[in-house]
Amino acid sequence: MKATNTNQFPKDFLWGGAIAANQAEGAYLEAGKGLTIVDLLPAGENRRSIMKGNVPSLKPLDGEFYPSHEAIDFYHRYKEDVALFAEMGFKALRISLSWARIFPNGEESSLNEAGLQFYDDLFDELKKYQIEPVVTLAHFDVPVELIEKYGSWRNRKLVSLFELYAKTVFTRYKDKVKYWLTFNEINMLLHLPFLGAGLVFKEGDHRKQIQYQAAHHQLLASALAVKAAHDISPDAKIGCMLAAGSFYPYTCNPDDVYKAMEKDRESYFFIDVQSRGQYPAYAHRFFKDHGITIEMELNDKEILKEGTVDYIGFSYYSSRTTSTDPEVIKKMTSGNVFGSVSNPYVPKSEWGWTIDPKGFRITANQLYDRYQKPLFVVENGLGAVDELTPGGEINDDYRIDYFRQHIAEMAEAIEDGVEILGYTSWGPIDLISASSGEMKKRYGYIYVDKDNEGNGTLKRIKKKSFSWYKKVIESNGDIR
């Protein structure tokens, strides 16, 4: 593959990486922090069922290992880690705030100064190295007490509580943060509803009704947060965030093509509302066909219309493929949260995720064509098993190859006319996998000495990809 022409990337392009509080910080009850969603997700076979809303307990259970409780201890080691990111030349670091670190029980009475101060200190450390923070308000994060007390996002009460949280942090950090995101991968609510929105189901629940009512509440909360950000910090930019990846029809059978369109709309639904300020026409047919009635108050439509985002953040790991043929549907790929039939034209990762760089360009073009707003690639990366050599090195050429191909296609998307603000690859340092709870599914340029059972020194070791990505940033996109 030819090297990227560095002129394709704007001179102020925000190169960097992305982490999340619940997968990196650890210190899960330190300095007043409350329990949050991921603190209840054990490693092992029960994890996926709980993420779907089949939650046995709203407290950690004896005998289970909860990887988030220590994670990679970023809470205590952030200065060391930020220095490594600065050594790579990061222009931006995407992080998330832990709602439960700032409001341990989610309500005004529990405002925790120690939590606010932690993020002050983190932002100051980033500023020291001229690294721009890109901050997500809710990255798979609901204080557990709000689940116990209100049923989480199924209850409209969370809209006002989230608005309070947003206004609190916008006011506190208005001089330190320019780029915000409301909800991480907001469409995950449909696939892993406990992880995405803290939803717990019981037998007999009309799940789709509950999910879309919760979605309405999150969309309202997002719109109110956008308005608050603009009021409190007029120079700030605030976006939404989609778990993206276009669906391909398995064949040119019109039924397959229509099915792929429907699958894409499942995700676009959220961004249609956040970007355009109203429910898309196709949603009304969908609600009717599935017996869904969205409860709205008189001014809800006005709130959505006034709270449209400034840019579209998205994650891209893989494309997806769908079919209406029962025999083809039997060939589903494993691992990915989004169901996909096996695509014979693209390889797969060790976790069954398709590796499709061209799909990255396609997805970026489709999003820009649809919304005509700047895009921000806030996650992209390869989860793989890394092996230490006897000399203590990690030669992750497979990761370099993945990034080289994806960055080349991102450059092509920019040449296509797509406006992209920046690229924060996922997991610049190894962290806990959200989907599997594993450490061995590593994404980073920096190795963390920890295994799936929680053993290890937490020592940080630079991988081969560390120096490669440093050169990419220094050259503004040369991938040789």
What labels describe this entry?
EC 3.2.1.86, 6-phospho-beta-glucosidase activity, GH_1_N_CS, TIM Barrel, 12 strands, two-stranded parallel ribbon, 8-stranded parallel beta barrel, GH
Describe it.
The structure is a single chain. Helix content is 39%, strand content 12%. By secondary structure, it is α/β, with parallel strands linked by helices. It has one domain: Glycosidases (TIM Barrel), CATH 3.20.20. The strands form 3 sheets. An 8-stranded parallel barrel has the order 1-2-3-4-5-7-9-10, surrounded by 4 helices. Helix 7 packs parallel to helix 9. The relative contact order is 0.14. Belongs to the glycosyl hydrolase 1 family. Its EC number is 3.2.1.86. One of its GO terms (molecular function) is 6-phospho-beta-glucosidase activity.
Short description:
With 480 residues, the chain is of the alpha/beta class. Helix content is 39%, strand content 12%. It is an enzyme of class 3 (hydrolase).
Architecture (CATH level 2) name: Alpha-Beta Barrel
Q: DSSP helix count? A: 16
Fourth-level CATH superfamily: Glycosidases
Q: From the alpha carbons, calculate the radius of gyration and give it in angstroms.
A: 21 Å
Residue-averaged pLDDT = 95
The beta-strand count equals 12
GO molecular function: 6-phospho-beta-glucosidase activity
InterPro entries: GH, GH_1_N_CS, Glyco_hydro_1, Glyco_hydro_1_AS
Pfam family, one: Glyco_hydro_1
Family: Belongs to the glycosyl hydrolase 1 family.
